[in-house]
Write a structure and sequence with these properties.
Elements (H helix, E strand, L loop, with lengths): L1 H15 L2 H10 L4 H8 L21 H12 L3 H20 L2 H12 L5 E4 L15 E7 L2 E15 L6 E8 L2 E8 L5 E3 L13 E12 L11 H37 L1 E2 L2 E2 L4 H7 L1 H22 L5 H28 L11 H8 L9 H18 L3 H11 L8 H20 L6 H27 L5 H26 L6 H10 L2 H5 L5 H14 L1
Parallel strand pairs: 1-4
Antiparallel strand pairs: 2-3, 3-7, 4-5, 6-7, 8-9
Length: 532
């Protein structure tokens, strides 16, 4: 099924969204609603991948959705955002809707007759769902709630002014709740589309709800007060999707830079043969996206196996954080790699650079992800009495002969463990900067372990996967060593003697030596990248 859908995406690139049309939409800030609706129509039906079979779809899982989203982002991140908005708008119904709601509203999406949007963010609230101000007042008749009247405002809603229906979060007397609100309801006013830095082929609207009455059967799940629980369940999956979008967009930027470097000759040799160029502008970014993809695949498999709750959601935050930051860095490097041409619109990378920035902002900013990661890995470490990261370290010890950088990753896992433990003992966790450092250590370490697992299964000391795993392990060693010392020394609350002991206990000397052989591996990686 997935191969068929990805073939469909390839046809979309050729038939509906060639490069010239994508650049034109961006330049004129056009939201191509007709193209999007064609993608949902019977000839294409791209949305069917995430709709369950019983409601007219293909029943694809998280891994399938991530693969399609990644491929679409490689065409245009703006249009991919519009497609993602459709999935996002459907998620509360998919996860929590009644059977009747699923048949009705998912059925509309499956048949291609409806665009959906997700309306949660509010002016001045951003990612803080607890600051919800939109109200849904029950309307009673003969002691029974027959409708709700919704009043409030939403901000930064993708496809909000074009959607045929929206899932809207509003406060009821029992707590936050999702409602299905159809376009054209009296009192519903989409605002003028925002003029944006990037993703200009998507439409982003403010929305006003002025006493909008919706029937009681539009309450998602039929029980009020479940909205925050439902929103948190949605976030885990949608953050994983954003990570996939980041990988797709970053890969596209680097593919353009790679192709340019093969043909651009300076001082008698192609740029692809200049070590400083490829080691700085190409290889690290390809490897970082490769590691992010390994983590995405691991989390998607967990979702598809029925995983839910804090553990899988925390790793989804890691995937979103690492992939989105990697995509921004990759796009910036691609502009630099093309020199003056990179700054010109026709070469596409300047658009991708503008587009990718949103990935570190929507569905929870990078800083929100760092807060989540640090908090839950701190809790996990103490709940398991250090066992979580020690088990990870032992697993990597078992891969020491696989040539995937496992020794460094084992030391990194123990460094995360010891950093969390000492930060807790010294009450350094009160410092957000310390917690952010812990989040970075945890994210790089767990992504490195995901890549090492995958690479070890494929074998070969100099295979591309193995070499990429060693390179990312070396970066993980550098990140963990620097962040561990920053966390422990930065506040000035850990004395010199205790700091020296921490360095030994956290295996920082091993991490400082992680770059042994790195230049050779970078050369091997460049050879693999430019031979493709």
């Amino acid at each position: 099924m997935l191969e068929m859908v990805l073939d469909t995406v390839s046809r979309i690139r050729t038939d509906l969204l060639p490069k010239e049309k994508v650049l034109d939409f961006d330049a004129r800030e056009v939201f191509p609603e007709d193209v999007l609706r064609t993608m949902l129509g019977p000839e294409v039906g791209l949305q069917l991948v995430f709709i369950p079979e019983e409601y007219g779809g293909m029943g694809g899982g998280a891994a399938d959705g991530c693969a399609v989203t990644r491929a679409m982002a490689g065409i245009c991140l703006g249009i991919s955002t519009a497609f993602f908005a459709l999935q996002l708008g459907a998620e509360p119904i998919l996860l929590a809707g009644t059977e009747e709601q699923k048949r009705t509203w998912l059925g509309k999406i499956a048949e291609g007759s409806a665009l959906a949007a997700y309306a949660v963010t509010e002016p001045g609230a951003g990612s803080n769902l607890a600051a919800l101000k939109t109200k849904a007042v029950p309307v009673e008749k003969d002691g029974e709630v027959v409708a709700y009247r919704i009043t409030g405002a939403k901000q930064f809603i993708s496809t909000g002014g074009h959607a045929d229906f929206l899932t809207v979060l509003a406060e009821t007397p029992q707590g936050p709740s999702f409602f299905i609100v159809e376009k054209g309801r009296e009192g519903f006013f989409p605002g003028k589309p925002e003029h944006k830095h990037g993703i200009r082929a998507s439409a982003t609207n403010p929305l006003v709800f002025d006493n909008v009455e919706v029937p009681a059967d539009r309450l998602v799940g039929g029980v009020p007060g479940q909205g925050l629980k439902q929103a948190n369940a949605v976030f885990g999956r949608t953050r994983l999707m954003v990570g996939s979008m980041a990988v797709g967009a970053g890969e596209r930027a680097l593919a353009i830079a790679r192709d340019y470097a093969k043909t651009r000759v300076q001082f008698h040799t192609p740029l692809a043969e200049k070590q400083g160029y490829v080691h700085k502008l190409i290889v690290p970014h390809v490897v970082r996206l490769f590691a992010a993809q390994a983590l995405i695949e691991q989390v998607a498999a967990a979702f598809d196996a029925g995983g839910q709750g804090t553990e899988v959601d925390t790793q989804a935050s890691m995937a979103k954080y690492l992939a989105s930051e990697a995509a921004v860095a990759a796009a910036d490097a691609a502009v630099q790699a093309l020199g003056g041409y990179g700054y010109m619109a026709e070469y596409e990378v300047e658009k991708i650079r503008r587009d990718t920035k949103i990935l570190t902002i929507y569905e929870g900013t990078s800083e929100i992800q760092q807060n989540i990661i640090a908090l839950y890995r701190w809790k996990k470490t103490f709940k398991t009495k250090g066992g979580f990261y020690e088990d990870l370290a032992r697993e990597m010890d078992g891969l020491a002969e696989a040539g995937v950088g496992a020794k460094t990753l084992s030391a990194a896992a123990r460094a995360v463990n010891r950093t969390i433990q000492l930060a807790h003992a010294k009450k350094l966790t009160r410092s957000q900067s310390v917690m952010f450092a812990i989040a970075d250590m945890a994210t790089w370490t767990e992504a490195g372990c995901a890549l090492a697992r995958a690479a070890a299964k494929k074998g070969g000391p100099d295979s591309m996967d193995t070499v990429f795993s060693r390179i990312f392990a070396a970066e993980t060693g550098e990140v963990c060593a620097k962040k561990a010392m920053f966390a422990m020394a930065g506040t000035g609350d850990v004395g010199p003697g205790e700091l020296a002991g921490f360095e030994r206990e956290a295996e920082l000397p091993v991490l400082w030596r992680a770059e042994i052989g790195l230049i050779r591996d970078m050369d091997l990686a460049a050879e693999a990248i430019f031979s493709s």
